[in-house]
Amino acid sequence: MAAADDTLTTPVKLLTIGNSGVGKSCLILRYTSNKFSTSYITTIGIDFKNKVIDIGDKRVTLDIWDTAGQERFQTITLSYLRGAKGIMLVYDITDRTSYEQTRNWMRNIRSHGDEDVNVVLVGNKVDLESKRKVTYEEGVALAKEFGVEFFEVSARKDTNVKESFRCLAEKALKAVLVPKSTGGAGGVKIDDKSKGKGGGCCGGGSG
């Protein structure tokens, strides 16, 4: 296969969404800069980072938008759903409320997101296993309910972060190249391969 063209990139808009404090900013920082900070400031409104990767013969610029989880910023967050071809829906495995709130976030995605948006469900902070409040099996069950991929990850330990973003990016790129593809339930287009410890689509390992 020919090498990706250095001069031409395909822009793909990704979004992280979920309750405040689940680690969305830390996941993006780990993925884009391979860094982790314990003093990361809570996102106010919207933040943005990008990363260029190769997917097959395409050089892709991932525009990754980091949304605030606080209720007072929800209107801003929801406005950024439009145009996103990939959404990482994040909860914290040590915070059961954040897990339960993912259903509300998914309803917002289905109501305000594009018809061909792709979603990956991510349970963050698996490095805090002793404080776990949400089982891996519950994450798998929720992903199956949504019809999406599932990964357990750790931004701190860099566990499955690259795999989860890569999975989302590959799905989102297909939506960009083939607009308005046939969607899944509720307008969320995804293959139901939620199996294996780290998720199905990109061969993620255990969390």
UniProtKB/TrEMBL annotation:
Gene3D superfamilies in the record: P-loop containing nucleotide triphosphate hydrolases
Keyword terms: GTP-binding, Lipoprotein, Nucleotide-binding, Prenylation, Protein transport, Transport
Keyword Thylakoid: no
SUPFAM superfamilies, per database record: P-loop containing nucleoside triphosphate hydrolases
InterPro entries documented for this protein: P-loop_NTPase, Small_GTP-bd, Small_GTPase, Small_GTPase_Rab
GO MF assignments: GTP binding; GTPase activity
GO biological process: protein transport
Cited Pfam families: Ras
Origin superkingdom: Eukaryota
PROSITE patterns: RAB, RAS, RHO
Stored PANTHER family: LD44762P
Similarity section: Belongs to the small GTPase superfamily. Rab family.
Function: Protein transport. Probably involved in vesicular traffic from ER to Golgi.
Protein name: Ras-related protein Rab-1
Organism field: Cafeteria roenbergensis (Marine flagellate)
Source lineage: Eukaryota, Sar, Stramenopiles, Bigyra, Opalozoa
